[in-house]
Amino acid sequence: MLPPDFRWIKPAATAYDETVIAHGDTWVVHIYQPERGKEWVAMLDAHREPEARRHRRCTAFANGKAGAELWVQREQARLRLEVQRAHAISHTRISDTSLSTSSGLAT
């Protein structure tokens, strides 16, 4: 079971299954199947830069989901903090850009 501020979502409107765990609008886990009919993979720390993400093979889709939920429970404090920091940085960049643009200064 996921902490209350994390939820399973579909990665796209046309997706068949909920394969992403999100905190707000930010993905933290994505379970995917690189090739149809092959093994499933859980991408942990999906919110990080590609080189910092970890990938774990899953024996089955259901096992991957169960393992992902356990991982989020264990890592929830760190995940919340990292997502919050990423949002703060993103909002600062947006504010800086809008201030520069409205003052007529080039960025």
Would you write up a description of this structure?
The model has no long low-confidence stretch (mean pLDDT 88). This protein is α+β, with helices and mostly antiparallel strands. It is globular, with a radius of gyration of 17 Å. It has one domain. The longest helix has 43 residues, at 61-103. It has one helix at 61-103; strands spanning 6-9, 20-23, 26-32, 40-44, 54-58. Strand 3 (26-32) and strand 4 form a beta hairpin. The protein is built from one helix and five strands.
In short:
The chain has one helix and five strands. By secondary structure, the chain is an alpha+beta fold.
How does the SSE layout of this entry go?
Blueprint: E1 6-9, E2 20-23, E3 26-32, E4 40-44, E5 54-58, H1 61-103
Antiparallel strand pairs: 1-2, 2-3, 3-4, 4-5
* Intertermini distance: 45 Å
Q: Give the total of beta strands.
A: 5
Biggest sheet: strands side by side, in what order? Answer: 1-2-3-4-5
Cα-based radius of gyration, to the nearest Å: 17 Å
Mean pLDDT: 88
Total domains: 1
Uncertain runs with pLDDT below 50, 5 residues or more?
Answer: none
Give the overall shape: globular
Strand residue percentage: 15-25%
Order of helices and strands: EEEEEH
| Class inferred from helices and paired strands | alpha+beta
- Helical segment count: 1
Helix content: 40-55%
